Amino acid sequence: MAYIAPNSTIKLLQDVPLDNTYNHTIYFASKQAQSDYFAGKVLRTFNEHSYVRINRGRIRLQTYTENVYTCNYLMFQNTAFGDKWFYAFIKSCEYVNNITTEFEFEIDVMQTWMFDYTLGECFVEREHAITDSPGDNLQPEPVACGEYVFNNYDVAFNLSSDMGVVIAIVDTGDDGKFQGATIDGVFCGTLMFGMRSNNVAGILDKLNEYSAKPDSVISIYTCPWYFIGGGTAYDGVALHAKGYATSPPSVTYSISTGSALDGYVPHNKKLLTYPYTFLHVDNSCGDSLALRYEFGDIPGQISLECLGTVTQPVQAILRPFYYKGSGVNTLNTETLTLSNFPLCSWGVDSYQAFIAQNDMPMKVDIVQGVTSTLGRAATGALFGASGGLAGVAVGALGNAIGGAVNTINSITDNMTSEYQASIKADVLKGNVSSGNINVSHGKHNFYAGRVSIVQEQARKFDEFFSMFGYATNKVKIPNTHHRAHWNFVKTKGCVAKGSIPADDMAKICHIYDNGLTFWNNGDEVGNYTLDNDL
């Protein structure tokens, strides 16, 4: 066998930011870029060295130990057998004699075989995503959000600032026929009049129209004026068809990529999605909805619509539209209802009602009493004519007295009834209470506001996502180098193929399963203050 002269090249490197934990490695686009980078870290070069055995893990070099303590990495090439560079971590260096130092090394499988294998489709647990617009990455994260705070909060639909009153009346009309109308899609056998709640005179005038028949007024209740008509033209007008005369009110809420979470503007846009921030809508009575900006048909926008009824029970309903693909239609699965609009009270003057209801019957009773007296007097006169003057006088007098007594009794009974009616307390109908506390304070409304995690949590999550990317949980080829400065990737059951030793391939797959960060620039390893946007 021919003699081969020692011709291996060994380079000792310092300040290489890599170690055998494989938490970090450096991505290179080419072998030349790789060798150029490591060549810039060389402290000592040894040429014409004997063949370096990879698996032995030890090598002796003629150098003073004190001169190479700072070296933490080496690269070598067995030139006589090929041009491949092997890269290795220096685990230790030990004094042998005055001119010899022994190095223990371990092959860096990530750098040594970087261009000799390819990754297949793996189950990727985490990585830095290729796109980072809000809504692009919605996989749940293993983090606890903690308490939420409002970034803004205000009235979405102000229903109590302009309240109306609906008066429901049963009236047969002058022709004796019942009256009614179809309201809110349901037939109502009543007349319903809408009044502004501050139009007290108009409300009283309408009630006074029915003072003679107070039972015709069957209900008075509050209702947002918008549902009644929304304009002065509807004040006092009988309601027909739908309660509102114009299109339902709507409002749109938006979030931008520069929005802050409790004052902190995140770099990672996943934090601008649920559960880190979302639109909170409530009805001021304890019920609420959590609506996600990323589910808006227009990304980052949520549109809300408010519908209502004017028939009892009065309800206002809030629903989103252009949400979760609903388009212009409101989404019925996301509904918030506001009810408990108070009933009103109204007084009935029992005495006046009695007079109005009994005036004619009392007059008839009196006339009947007088007629009865006159009739009995005439009968007595006829009797006296046949029985003598004395009989006439006595009979007539008796009948007259009896008739007078009946007349007096009738008048007395009527007067007694009037007196009882006059001293009887006026009847208070409807709901005696003044309405719920929200209506009385003008807060019976729908409210909306963007909530988020607190600033401290937002900052922690942002730093976590910057270092370790997002939860991915899908089968794909891992991302290793598309970000500006670094890419983290973690797989489960990594799949790779290439012409490399099986042990090293198994080690490479294990490294991916443990998770590692690829840095585009070796001098930036560990510098997470850099802007790592796409």
Question: What shape does the CA trace take?
Answer: rod-shaped
Structural class: alpha+beta
Largest sheet, in brief, is:
6 strands, antiparallel
Low-confidence stretches: 377-394, 421-428, 431-435
Number of domains: 3
Textual characterization of the structure:
The chain folds into 3 domains: 8-133 and 463-524, no CATH class; 145-349 and 427-462, no CATH class; 350-425. Helices cover 24% and strands 30% of the residues. The chain has helices spanning 31-39, 109-112, 200-208, 225-228, 350-387, 389-423, 437-440, 455-468, 502-514; strands spanning 8-14, 24-26, 42-49, 58-61, 71-78, 86-97, 100-107, 117-119, 122-127, 148-150, 154-157, 163-169, 181-183, 186-188, 191-196, 217-224, 250-254, 277-282, 288-291, 301-308, 316-321, 336-338, 345-348, 427-430, 446-453, 470-476, 486-492, 496-498, 516-519. Helix 5 runs antiparallel to helix 6. The longest helix is centred in the last third of the chain and has 38 residues, at 350-387. It is rod-shaped and about 130 Å long. The two termini are 57 Å apart.
Salient structural properties:
single chain, 534 residues, alpha+beta, six-stranded antiparallel β-sheet, 9 helices, 29 strands, 30% strand
Describe the protein's topology.
Blueprint: E1 8-14, E2 24-26, H1 31-39, E3 42-49, E4 58-61, E5 71-78, E6 86-97, E7 100-107, H2 109-112, E8 117-119, E9 122-127, E10 148-150, E11 154-157, E12 163-169, E13 181-183, E14 186-188, E15 191-196, H3 200-208, E16 217-224, H4 225-228, E17 250-254, E18 277-282, E19 288-291, E20 301-308, E21 316-321, E22 336-338, E23 345-348, H5 350-387, H6 389-423, E24 427-430, H7 437-440, E25 446-453, H8 455-468, E26 470-476, E27 486-492, E28 496-498, H9 502-514, E29 516-519
Parallel strand pairs: 2-29
Antiparallel strand pairs: 1-3, 1-5, 4-7, 5-6, 6-7, 8-28, 9-26, 9-27, 10-25, 11-25, 12-15, 12-16, 13-14, 17-20, 18-19, 18-25, 20-21, 21-22, 23-24, 27-29
Helix pairs in contact: 5-6
